Automatic annotation (TrEMBL):
Pfam families: V-set (PF07686). Keywords: Disulfide bond, Glycoprotein, Immunoglobulin domain, Membrane, Signal, Transmembrane, Transmembrane helix. Residues 28-141 form the Ig-like domain. PANTHER family: T-CELL IMMUNOGLOBULIN AND MUCIN DOMAIN-CONTAINING PROTEIN 4. GO terms for biological process: apoptotic cell clearance; cytoskeletal rearrangement involved in phagocytosis, engulfment. It comes from Xiphophorus maculatus. The chain crosses the membrane at residues 177-196. This is Hepatitis A virus cellular receptor 1 homolog. The keyword Glycoprotein applies.
Length: 226
């Protein structure tokens, strides 16, 4: 057809344009701009304990912003499998009470704390902070690994308990020794009081006996006259 011949002739007459060096540098630069606010963090938690997934932004530069947490890597928009959503500092959605914001949210610390984390909580979590402008959203992917609590902590706890028992036992022994010492000293004082009292009583009775004996002797030495 005539229009196909016209298009073929036009394409043949059109000069071929190759990418310029500036265009080649611009494409990677745009990719860097898109990915500059994205990073990956690895966190290890212990089963049965609270674990915190870090995420923060600059409040002084942007003010209080909206953000979300999701289970899975941060997609191109919003969060995948959203588990927590906050609108300008106010939590509007929370999948479970186990997901808490225990940091200073109004200061830009939007770290997510999983209360009493379990093995099933392992995986990738995504935090997106909605910063105004094109491709400005901050994206943080956190890879969480859950492990059993190390035996060292259990040993330390056991030794702490033993130390506590030992200290308590030592205190009881010291208290008993103190009681025995008090009883011993009280007994000695009581004995001394009895001894002193006895000496005092003996001191009082001795002069009376001497006077009686002297009087008898004098009476015997006086000659009797007829």
């Amino acid at each position: 057809m005539w229009w196909q011949k016209y298009m073929a002739a036009s394409l043949q007459d059109m000069p071929v344009q190759y990418p310029t060096p500036m265009c080649g540098l611009l494409i990677p630069f745009l990719l860097i701009l898109i990915q500059v606010s994205s990073c990956t963090v690895t966190v290890t938690g212990y089963i049965g304990q609270d674990v915190t997934l870090p995420c923060s932004y600059d409040v002084q530069a942007n003010g209080v912003l909206s953000f979300c947490w999701g289970h899975g890597q941060v997609p191109r928009s919003k969060c995948s499998n959203t588990i927590l959503l906050s609108d300008n500092g106010n939590v509007t959605f929370r999948e479970s009470p186990r997901y808490q914001l225990l940091s200073q949210v109004m200061q830009g610390d939007v770290s997510l704390t999983i209360v009493k984390a379990q093995k099933i909580d392992s995986g990738v979590y995504g935090c997106r902070v909605e910063i105004p402008g094109w491709f400005n959203d901050q994206k943080i992917n956190v890879h969480l690994t859950m492990e059993e609590a190390p035996m060292e902590e259990l040993d330390i706890q056991s030794s702490t308990d033993c130390d506590t028992v030992t200290v308590s036992k030592a205190l009881l022994e010291a208290e008993n020794i103190g009681r025995i010492a008090v009883i011993f000293f009280l007994t000695i004082i009581l004995i001394l009081i009895l001894i002193i009292r006895r000496k005092v009583l003996m001191g009082r009775t001795t002069p009376q006996k001497l006077n009686t004996i002297t009087a008898e002797n004098i009476y015997e030495t006086i000659p009797m006259t007829k």
